[in-house]
């Protein structure tokens, strides 16, 4: 089959590599220009570079404009394959090939449609995540499912570990989907849209710890925002600090949410949800990074006690 690839960042590159490794012909690679925004710069392996290495024509564009549609039309694809494409695609484009357009989304649709699904899955306490290959339609991540791969979310896993594990699902999912199309064995499963959950793009505000959450949720939040992602943060004595490592306390504590009250296991205990009842576990901060970039042991850094706050105070 003749394939046109739409993709960006490491997800797009790994998808293009899977297409190159298949028995099919990649006739055009469409990708975005390099970006400097915080999240787009994290997993930024180049689709353009890989396509050029393999002699595949490349089209750089921010959006699927008239020129893009014309180039795809002249490439005569049997199917378009998309992964990590940031802008809207019109029906004129995604319905163009005989087999339509396949989109890869790193969640178990219909759950976690939208953006940063792996991080949101971990933050939300999901027990599993995965990769879905579905047919593109007029809404975001809502088309019929062709292939779905699942992985458990292990205890203690970081967001980065899950993202990397999810990327390893791409080659198998791509090859399975293409074989089904070529062999005429594709089975399309409609999504139950009543089960759909949508998550917005992450921004700086979304990395701030909410001290009203219980310790289990806060500990998961810190793990989800592992390097190279923007780390979980709060304010202490007017300074923005990053929380790099934390665990749930063994003892139960009471007081005021955000109050640093004692040390446990080499870390500083911070009260969380419903603290006035004194029946909940707390977050034990083991390692922090100051605004100057210096890392500290939690017990040492918070030796003066005080409060962690939502804003400088």
From TrEMBL:
Formyl transferase N-terminal domain span: 1-162
Ranges for domain Formyl transferase C-terminal: 204-303
PROSITE patterns: GART
GO-annotated molecular function: methionyl-tRNA formyltransferase activity
Signal sequence coordinates: none
Keyword terms: Protein biosynthesis, Transferase
A cellular component term, taken from the record's GO annotations: cytosol
Pfam families xref list: Formyl_trans_C (PF02911), Formyl_trans_N (PF00551)
InterPro entries, sorted: Formyl_trans_C, Formyl_transf_N, Formyl_transf_N_sf, Formyl_transferase-like_C_sf, GART_AS, Met-tRNA-FMT_C
Family of the protein in this entry: Belongs to the Fmt family.
Name recorded for this polypeptide: Methionyl-tRNA formyltransferase
Originating organism: Nocardia ignorata
């Amino acid at each position: 089959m003749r394939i046109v690839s739409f993709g960006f960042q490491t997800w797009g590159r790994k998808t293009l590599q899977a297409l190159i490794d298949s028995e099919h012909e990649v006739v055009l690679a469409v990708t975005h220009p390099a970006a400097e925004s915080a999240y787009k710069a994290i997993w930024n392996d180049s689709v353009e570079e890989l396509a050029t290495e393999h002699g595949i024509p490349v089209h750089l564009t921010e959006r699927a404009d008239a020129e893009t549609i014309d180039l795809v039309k002249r490439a005569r694809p049997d199917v378009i394959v998309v992964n990590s494409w940031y802008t809207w695609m019109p029906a004129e484009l995604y319905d163009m090939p005989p087999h339509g357009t396949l989109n890869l989304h790193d969640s178990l649709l219909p759950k976690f449609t939208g953006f940063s699904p792996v991080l949101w899955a971990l933050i939300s306490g999901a027990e599993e995540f995965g990769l879905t290959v579905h047919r593109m339609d007029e809404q975001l991540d809502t088309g019929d499912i062709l292939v779905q791969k699942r992985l458990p979310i292990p205890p203690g896993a970081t967001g980065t570990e899950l993202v990397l594990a999810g990327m390893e699902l791409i080659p198998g999912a791509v090859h399975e989907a293409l074989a089904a199309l070529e062999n005429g064995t594709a089975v399309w499963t409609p999504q139950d849209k009543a089960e759909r959950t949508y998550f917005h793009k992450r921004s700086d505000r979304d990395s701030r710890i909410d001290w009203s959450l219980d310790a289990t949720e806060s500990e998961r939040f810190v793990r989800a925002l592992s390097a190279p992602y923007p780390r979980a943060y709060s304010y202490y004595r007017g300074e923005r600090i990053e929380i790099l490592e934390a665990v749930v306390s063994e003892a139960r504590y009471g007081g005021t949410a955000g109050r640093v009250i004692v040390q446990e296991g080499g870390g500083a205990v911070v009260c969380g949800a419903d603290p006035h009842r004194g029946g909940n576990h707390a977050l034990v901060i083991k390692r922090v990074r100051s605004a100057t970039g210096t890392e500290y042991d939690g017990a040492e850094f918070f030796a003066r006690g005080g409060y962690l706050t939502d804003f400088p105070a």
